Amino acid sequence: MSDTAIATALTELVGVRTPIVQTGMGWVAGPRLVSAAANAGALGILASATMTPEQLRSAVREVKSRTGAPFGVNLRADASDAGERVRIILDEGVKVASFALAPRPELIARLKDADVVVIPSVGARRHAEKVAAWGADAVLVQGGEGGGHTGSVATTVLLPQVVDAVDIPVIAAGGFRDGRGLVAALAYGAAGIAMGTRFLLTSDSTVPDAVKARYLAAGVQDVTVTTKVDGLPHRMLRTDLVDALERSGSTASLLRALRHASAFRRDSGMSWAGMVRDGLAMKHGRELTWSQVLLAANTPMLLKAAMVEGRTDLGVMACGQVGGLIDDLPSCAELVDRIMAEAHATLGRLTTGL
Ligand SMILES: Cc1cc2nc3c(=O)[nH]c(=O)nc-3n(C[C@H](O)[C@H](O)[C@H](O)COP(=O)(O)O)c2cc1C
Predict the structure, then answer these.
(1) How far is the CA of 280 from the centre of ligand 1 (A)?
(2) How far is Cα 207 from Cα 190, in angstroms, rounded to an integer?
(3) Which of 4, 218, 236, 240 is most buried, taking the most CB atoms under 10 A from its CB?
(4) How many structural domains comprise the chain?
(5) Which GO terms describe its molecular function (predicted)?
């Protein structure tokens, strides 16, 4: 490991060596990837929405057995069992709570009282302003080029807009893979970068080799956005499945969604009543129809088919546009060291004019 630390408000807040975050990706960000990222000096975040609470507790313990470095857990603030998951975070002394949607002020306060750092993810300035006013410690802002559920505003536009709007540290996500990007984000006023697709494509990620090969072979034009998986804009690799979903009618979509909702209920250990409660929470404050809520169960099951079962034909391969530029599988340690070395070289070039 080279001595290339860059101190920012993020490294100070969380106690990590580098201003780099490995984001919570469903079925991808498990104990192995998270501990490798943490040991490399980044903030690793465990994805918990696709785990039962018992699985979350044992995953947290596994990370702790593999690293003494700080790490985080990503959860859905609107999940009916969010309270139970927060209990696990508190019991196990997890350093960071990352939220896919804005957590309520009471939840933020409960975590902060226990010295847990609260970092919600947002895709719009007004959401950043809201969570900052509610007491979030930092905010992760994802531009439209990012993988998974995504907005339409590019990182280069959204990031400075959010930096200007809030007084808490802002972490930039969407489109990052190297040290030039880190320096660019810092220049915009960010406190660090968060990467999903880049960490998925490491030798430490447990994603099956056949799936990684599909990502490595993809160019920028092979990454698309569809609303056909769960009704929300979702960035992923364009595959035959995605083309078929784009063509399929609403009856076929609903039948598939019902099948997946049933499978997700089994996998997540949730009751039907719990799923309906979660569906109601999702609908609340958003313009979603019941069929869109039902379709939501499609995402975890289709993501699992690719990320766990290696089904490149049947699964969804969420991917940022940056996936089109990535063609290697470094370890997390190699990746983080490389990014920091590139960042220093870039800073040197800028200051000496070479
Ligand atoms: C395979 C995959 C799965 C993802 N799953 C989740 C998730 O479960 N929860 C979440 O908040 N974001 C999820 N995301 C979004 C990432 O956490 C992150 O914000 C995004 O990948 C950043 O953009 P990038 O891919 O350009 O680095 C996922 C992204 C990918 C690529």
Answers:
(1) 24
(2) 30
(3) 236
(4) 2
(5) dioxygenase activity; nitronate monooxygenase activity
